[in-house]
Design a protein that fits this description.
- Helices cover about 35% and strands about 20% of the residues.
- It has an eight-stranded parallel sheet with strand order 1-8-7-6-5-4-3-2.
- It has a single domain, classed as Aldolase class I (TIM Barrel), CATH 3.20.20.
- It is α/β, with parallel strands linked by helices.
- The longest helix has 15 residues, at about 165-175.
Length: about 230
């Protein structure tokens, strides 16, 4: 398992009237990555934003630093179908890591290679009721596996407890393959359950309303890190 835990606030819950300021503030509060929830009103019911937001924020994130003095990584979760063209657009706009759903593309391996060809890290996302079979074929190609602990499409949902079992199963697969693959969880992550999710095997945590919905970002992230320590 990678040495450190990653906190990745989702800008889906940020105030878009001052998005750059929100990103600066959440990084100053201790965020490691900035998470983009991209929805297309096709694969999921909601519609969010496109590569232009990524392109606008990239100069900012390049100059910000996390606790390890690293540039802030832009972590893009594509809830879209088809995947390839938009993945390339986000990579060109400055995304550092792009994750997609295997059921949103006809050729999972080809989509992985398309993203890698843009010099971008790649992840695969699994919905709550989705089997993990495809991992047997492509796990060696991945940098990240993202487990959805809510059904994709809307922020502010409650964590699905059955996700813990899936996280444990994915952790075993990662450990067996021997690669330093991040195991990220997205959906209903809060101070009071983040430790339980980490104990199941996760090492990266997406939080939207749990952080951006609070008046003091630093307090929330500090409480999360305390729970993880």
């Amino acid at each position: 398992m990678p040495d450190q835990f990653i906190i990745a606030p989702s800008i889906l819950s940020a105030d878009f009237t001052k998005l750059g300021e929100e990103v600066k503030n959440v990084v100053a509060a201790g965020a490691d990555w900035i998470h983009f929830d991209v929805m297309d009103h096709h694969y999921v019911p909601n519609l969010t934003f496109g590569p232009m937001i990524c392109e606008s924020l990239k100069p900012l994130t390049k100059n910000l630093r996390n606790k390890n003095n690293e540039s802030i990584l832009i972590d893009v979760h594509l809830m879209v179908s088809p995947v390839d063209a938009l993945a390339v657009s986000f990579a060109k706009a400055g995304a550092d890591l792009i994750s997609f759903h295997p059921d949103a593309t006809q050729h999972v391996h080809r989509t992985i290679q398309t993203i890698k060809a843009q010099d971008c890290k790649v992840g695969l996302v699994f919905n709550p009721a989705q089997p993990l079979d495809v991992l047997d074929e492509v796990i060696d190609e991945l940098d990240l596996i993202l487990i959805m602990s809510v059904n994709p499409g809307f922020g502010g949902q409650s964590f699905i407890p059955a996700s813990l079992n899936k996280i444990e199963r994915v952790r075993r697969r990662i450990d067996s393959c021997g690669k330093p693959i991040r195991l990220e969880v997205d959906g209903g992550i809060k101070v009071d359950n983040i430790r339980q999710v980490a104990d199941a095997g996760a090492d990266a945590f997406v939080a939207g309303s749990a952080i951006f919905g609070q008046p003091d970002y630093k307090s929330v992230i500090s409480q999360m890190r305390k729970a993880l320590s």
